[in-house]
Amino acid sequence: MTVGHITAAPPDRVDPYAVLDGLSQLTTLTAGRLGDTRLVLRAVHGSPATETSFKSILGLGLLLLARERGLLAEGQPVIESTSGSLGLGLAAAGRLLGHEVHLVSDPGIPAVTRRKIELAGGVLHLAPAPHPVLGFQQARDDLLQQLRTEHPDYYWTNQNDSPLNPEVYTRWVVPHLVRTLDFARIAAGIFCVGSGGHFSALSAMLEAEGIRSYVADRHGSITFGGDPAPSILRGTGNQNRIPAVIDSARDRVTGVFEVSDAEACAGVQELAARGISVGGSSGVCYMGARRLAAALGPNAEGEILTFFADRGELYGTTLLNWGDSSD
């Protein structure tokens, strides 16, 4: 069933659905041959005009869907935990739609993201210290629940467990990709997982074409059975709990390739040498794709599809200098 807009935007106001449609016109780029194989990596990536249109899509989509379902009232405050980029997407969406947005993060949030959130009108609440075992993800969750208890009127988008998360990608992103991708050339897909929203939608898209999907997960993530450990990477992996979104899509995970921080940074540096500026989660995807290409064997050809969800500018030179003994 097609769900229509709630109401048409007045002539003097920006139509949020038009904004979301525009953000969802994601393009792809060829990231080069994968090692010594016959496979090439094709990456869906966000618009360079926004910090990350991937999370801008999710932030605005979550609020629009919640309003359509009657879950979010006009002017109701919104709250969410974020490592950074989703927070900016929600803050911008809240400003557009008239919702005060409260964001629970930690001191590691990139300075540029923090400032953009402030300029967009978002209210930041920082967890001061990590949980001793489960890290800042757990510390943020604890602070989030404390704030929800103090403010029961806040609407929690709950990206990790809400079915609205993958629905955003299914409704707005997938139709455009179906029109632009050449599925006959795609041998497999591999994606990073945080909440699992884009994996859920994109793996279902590929499954409909008879194409299998894999996961590239960071070392220290418990999502697929690993032991919890800290990481310099933000927005990928889960140190404290397994989100319901990825758990419900687990049957479409053909295999998992674990990538360390050092390997992810090496991937970021290799892509930078090719003129592609990305962040840590994209480095995880790239190195996972290299391993997947080798595992598919010498006769496999065509493309491996992935998603470069973050931009390198957010990390400064941290990832680019990682492993440089002269730094």
TrEMBL record:
Coiled coil: none annotated. Gene3D superfamilies: 3.40.50.1100. It holds the Pfam family PALP. One of its GO terms (biological process) is alpha-amino acid metabolic process. Residues 53-299 form the Tryptophan synthase beta chain-like PALP domain. Keywords: Pyridoxal phosphate. The keyword Thylakoid does not apply. InterPro entries: Cys_Synth/Cystath_Beta-Synth (IPR050214), TrpB-like_PALP (IPR001926), TrpB-like_PALP_sf (IPR036052). It comes from the Bacteria. The keyword Zinc-finger does not apply. Its cofactor is pyridoxal 5'-phosphate. This is Pyridoxal-phosphate dependent enzyme. It comes from Streptomyces sioyaensis.
